[in-house]
Design a protein that fits this description.
The chain is an alpha/beta fold. The protein has 11 helices and 16 strands. It folds into 3 domains: 2-84, Arc Repressor Mutant, subunit A (Orthogonal Bundle), CATH 1.10.10; 88-161 and 266-295, Periplasmic binding protein-like II (D-Maltodextrin-Binding Protein, domain 2), CATH 3.40.190; 164-263, D-Maltodextrin-Binding Protein, domain 2. β1 and β2 form a beta hairpin.
Length: 296
């Protein structure tokens, strides 16, 4: 009976993921094990749940009927685990978390590992990327996002702050006249990031200026690559301070226009308002908020 429940849960994962391999990655099972569970259910029922062809997987009519009941079974199981989480000092369950792709040694990641150490019965599946994921479509319980958030139907909570600094490599600055004003800064090359706005706000003595770089010769898709371009002496860029502490200390990067500062940005937990892991998600977010971290 327990094996049947497990097989039906695997079947649901395959149907939702659209492939055996993707379901395996989500469940942390090999593709062959996932296929074995589905095959066993099909043998027991005496019918095929999927149409299988090269590069394509779709539900049969029988599979669609079984899927509806199987989803209710999985939802009931998740609801039971969530109820136990609310009552227990040791929560049980799985959390799928989306994190920024950089900062693996930062306090954000340390807070996640502290939660994992504190709650060993919680399985954490962590996805690190600088691209914004669709939490509902991709099945994430919570995401950690930085900066200014777009309006959405998702719930949000500010759990910390992070600081940025405008920096460049000495080799790049040596090619230029001294940068003393914003007009001087406007002559510099900048690196653009595909998922972020190019403009940023600078502050000095209560004055706030929106700066829009005009010279954007390089575009990248991650903070790590942007940092690499700056270190190579190609451009200027505002980067998280936690990512450049070593470079600032050894002089391979230096601050540009130090009398101007960039406003701290928020670190936010973002999650769907509904979901099977509501109490576990809330406990995780409470933990992050209680650490009161500031990336500086």
């Amino acid at each position: 009976m327990i094996d049947d429940y497990k097989g039906l849960a695997v079947f649901v994962a395959v149907a939702e993921a659209g492939s055996f391999s993707q379901a395996g990655r989500q469940l942390k099972l090999s593709t062959s094990v996932v296929s074995h569970h589905v095959n066993k259910i099909e043998e027991k029922l005496g019918l095929s749940l999927f149409f299988r062809s090269t590069g394509s997987l779709s539900l049969t009519q029988e599979g669609q009927k079984v899927l509806s009941a199987s989803k209710r079974m999985v939802a009931a199981g998740e609801e039971a685990l969530d109820a136990l989480t609310e009552l227990s000092d040791q929560p049980v369950g799985t959390l799928r978390v989306a994190m920024p792709g950089f900062g693996e040694n930062s306090s954000i990641y340390r807070a996640v590992w502290e939660f994992a150490n504190k709650h060993p019965l919680v399985s954490i599946s962590l996805h690190g990327s600088d691209h914004t994921v669709d939490l509902v479509k991709e099945g994430f319980d919570v995401a950690i996002r930085l900066g200014r958030l777009k309006d959405s139907a998702l719930k949000t909570r500010r759990v910390g702050d992070f600081q940025r600094m405008l920096v460049a490599a000495p080799s790049y600055l040596d090619q230029l006249s001294p940068i003393r004003t914003l007009d001087d800064l406007q002559q510099c090359q900048f690196v653009s990031m595909t998922m972020l706005a190019d403009s940023f706000k600078l502050e000095k003595d209560g004055e706030v200026v929106e700066f829009v770089p005009e010279n954007l010769s390089i575009e990248v898709n991650s903070v790590t690559i942007a940092k690499s371009a700056v270190k190579a002496g190609l451009c200027v860029r505002q980067l998280p301070v936690s990512e450049i502490e070593e470079e600032l200390a050894n002089g391979s990067l230096v601050r540009v226009l130090p009398e101007w500062s960039l406003a701290d940005l928020g670190i936010y937990a973002v999650w769907p308002e509904t979901g099977p892991q509501k109490h576990l998600t809330r406990r995780f977010i409470d933990h992050l908020a209680s650490t009161n971290f500031c990336e500086s």
